[in-house]
Design brief:
repeat, Methylamine Dehydrogenase, Chain H, mainly beta, 4-stranded antiparallel beta sheet, single chain, 2 domains
């Protein structure tokens, strides 16, 4: 008796960038069922795409250096980018126009919006965090500045649900800040420089990576819920919205790996990129995940290969 074969995972390739892709973010699901994806790249040209298909929507032109981070406001009307040109820029996602450009004294590595989209937070090589109010008449300087990090800040997240700011980097610590006073209110110690950090889609977990380990922190209490050790240096990790699995990329190989969240067991391994994977992210509906690589491409992978979704026709024979 012939046995049904397991559908082969065929990623969709999103071309357009010319240098390594270092950051990806999906929007929430909009009222019409659509969602979006933004990418940051060392070519200095962040891009906005349809999240389900990867189709290009627009490129934000204006930076004069590598872009290390790109984030969308909750309503996707604005984007913010952090760059090696010593600026953070806020963009109109409909027109591509620059709404604000905030000068810094060094490379900006991380940025994010407040929950209401009226403020941004930035961090980078200066070891300082800054909050800028987009509604102020005088936008020449930050609303608040916080110091405390002793090395480069690589990751910044504004937790809108709890109105807290998370920052991390080479000083091996996730710091939690109250944006009303910009005082540090908590910290999570780790074993080495923190390569990546993100908030899960439902806001329950803070995920972070250090060396060969993946950490999952309770976003309410800031206690460590789970640590999973791998056999390679983990560059980025993203938790599926239903908490059953997570995707990880490595800084020293070409593989994309899927793990069971509860046991930490490796479930799937895929190769599609031609360079190390710098960034990974699950879509808000959990149907796909995106990976960005040193090879300059973004690839979209189905969570359930063979299922009809977006550009995948469901027969496992798509041409990409």
């Amino acid at each position: 008796m012939a046995m049904a074969s397991t559908p082969r995972a065929i990623p969709l390739t999103c071309s357009g960038h010319t240098r390594p892709v270092v950051d990806l973010q999906f929007s929430r699901v909009m009222s019409d069922g659509s969602y979006y994806m933004i990418s940051a790249c060392k070519d200095g040209n962040p891009m906005l795409r349809d999240g389900q298909t990867g189709d290009w929507i627009g490129t934000f032109i204006g930076h004069k250096g590598a872009v290390w981070s790109a984030r969308m406001s909750a309503d996707v009307t604005k984007a913010v980018t952090a760059s090696a040109d010593f600026t953070a820029k806020v963009w109109d996602t409909y027109t591509g126009d620059i709404l604000h450009s905030f000068s810094h004294q060094h490379i900006v590595r991380g940025c994010d919006f407040s929950g209401d989209g009226n403020r941004i937070v930035t961090g980078g090589m200066e070891k300082k965090l800054r909050i800028f109010d987009l509604n102020r008449d005088d936008l020449n300087g930050p609303l608040l500045t916080a110091e405390g990090h002793t090395s480069v800040i690589r990751n910044v997240v504004w937790d809108g649900a709890r109105n807290m700011i998370l920052s991390s980097g080479d000083d091996m610590e996730i710091r939690v800040w109250d944006p009303r006073t910009f005082n540090q209110v908590h910290s999570c110690k780790m074993d080495g420089p923190i390569a990546s950090m993100e908030l899960s889609a439902d806001g329950q977990y803070i995920t972070s990576t250090t060396g060969k380990s993946v950490y999952f922190w309770d976003a309410q209490t800031y206690t460590l819920r789970k640590q999973i050790k791998t056999e390679y240096d983990v560059s980025a990790v993203s938790l599926h919205p239903n908490h059953t699995r997570f995707v990880a990329g490595g800084s020293s190989d070409l593989w994309v790996r899927i793990y069971d969240f509860e046991s930490g067991r490796e479930l799937e391994v895929y190769k599609g990129h031609h360079g190390p994977v710098h960034t990974v992210s699950y879509s808000p509906d959990g149907e796909l995940y995106a990976t960005g690589s040193e090879d300059g491409t973004i690839r979209l992978w189905q969570t359930t290969p063979g299922k009809k979704y977006g550009l995948w026709q469901g027969d496992g024979n798509e041409e990409c």
